[in-house]
Specification:
It is a single chain. By secondary structure, this protein is an alpha/beta fold. The chain has helices at about 1-15, 25-35, 60-70, 100-110, 145-155, 170-175, 185, 190-200; strands spanning about 20, 40, 80-90, 95, 115-125, 130-140, 175-180. Strands 1, 2, 3, 4, 5, 6 and 7 form a 7-stranded mixed beta sheet that branches. Helix 4 (about 100-110) packs across helix 5. The protein is globular, with a radius of gyration of 17 Å. The two termini are about 25 Å apart.
Length: about 200
């Protein structure tokens, strides 16, 4: 009960802020709406590249900061900007968004019967201050049959999703054995952590 009261108090505290979500992801938009935040969506054309020497665990934070900075330039410092980037990491290999149907099937075959990490990096910018952080969740897939994989790809068209799947969709119900960590991080944004860091940056 105290957690709900504190969360409600923090959410109300943010109502006076002009919040910019620097992401076109419908999943991140929905999560922030469900957290009862009012915000405007603003995206920019940012090339999602990073130095080859960058540790893979740091890629999401690097790209989130890149997106936040691109949007920040268009607004005054009194706007709170939230940017994020998510990657799927398996055996030190980054699985990005699939190029086409065949690539989506290939990626899901590699995830079948194995564990991978979903890492979301977040960057908050407010009044000249910048805070970056990330969250990591282990996802354990069951062994997926060819029929399950092709049905999911053909019916849900996951070409806009890192790793070629959305945990909130049918594949998450039938194909995922368990997770270790924040479920919402896998959806696209570790909302509880975001709210906590927002509270710190605007105090």
């Amino acid at each position: 009960m105290n957690y709900v009261r504190n969360l409600s108090k923090n959410t109300i505290m943010f109502q006076h802020l002009d919040i910019i979500l620097a992401s076109g992801s419908p999943r991140r938009k929905k999560l922030l709406e469900e957290a009862e935040l009012s915000f405007t969506v603003k995206t920019s054309d940012v090339e999602e590249t990073y130095p080859d020497s960058l540790p893979k665990m740091m890629i999401p934070e690097f790209l989130a900061a890149k997106k936040a900075e691109a949007v920040r330039k268009e607004y005054a410092n009194d706007k709170l900007i939230i940017a994020a980037d998510t990657i799927v990491l398996q055996d030190s290999k980054v699985l990005g968004k699939p190029k086409d149907r065949e690539d989506a099937i290939f990626k899901l075959k590699s995830l079948s019967g194995a564990v991978h990490q979903v890492i979301t990096g977040v960057c908050l910018c407010y009044k000249g201050e910048k805070k970056t952080f990330s969250a990591s969740t282990n996802v354990f897939f069951k062994r997926l049959s060819k029929e399950i994989i092709t049905h999911y790809v053909d019916q849900y068209h996951p070409l806009d999703k890192a790793g070629a799947y959305g945990i909130q969709e049918w594949i998450g119900l039938v194909g995922i054995d368990r997770i270790e960590g924040d479920y919402f991080n896998v959806v696209g944004l570790p909302v509880s952590r975001v709210l906590s860091e927002m509270f710190r940056i605007v105090k």
